[in-house]
Amino acid sequence: MVFEVNGTSQTLTLDNRTTVLDALREHLGLIGAKKGCDHGQCGSCTVLLDGRRVKSCLVFAVTVDGRSVVTVEGLAEPGELSPLQAAFIAHDAFQCGYCTPGQLCSARGMLDEVAQGWPSAVTGDLDAPAELTDAEIRERMAGNLCRCAAYPHIVAAVRETAAGGRAAAR
């Protein structure tokens, strides 16, 4: 199979039972996405598949042939931080850090969904652009768990990035 990972074409020969998560970690050495629950419940393995958030432990690698995957390692240029990563640091939006790669990929995907006008379960006016309130951010990030409970900091980092705040300007 051939697919793009963080802008680079990758060719792998894999067992058809191999997940995207295992292909990334075990075959490509990209260890940012974490194996938390291995059941799609925690979100630690979240990556972007063709720009959409997916839990990579639930997706068979053979299904991404010809497609594009972005991991936490691909969110910024080497040696730099993306505005979202800078905001996570500025707001101390992680503690142990285990869930952080999945949180970052999910937040990037969520911000792109908002920019495209996608509503969530708590979006009030479906005809107006979504306003990223704390409740809206929490709902959209609900698929990513943090055992350290850094949620208020994660929400603040996402809100600041969406608003183009000081961390986003870095």
TrEMBL record:
Pfam families: Fer2 (PF00111), Fer2_2 (PF01799). Gene3D superfamilies: 3.10.20.30, [2Fe-2S]-binding domain. Transmembrane segments: none annotated. It comes from the Bacteria. Residues 1-75 form the 2Fe-2S ferredoxin-type domain. SUPFAM superfamilies: 2Fe-2S ferredoxin-like (SSF54292), CO dehydrogenase ISP C-domain like (SSF47741). Keywords: Iron, Metal-binding, Oxidoreductase. This is 2Fe-2S iron-sulfur cluster binding domain-containing protein. It comes from Micromonospora tarensis.
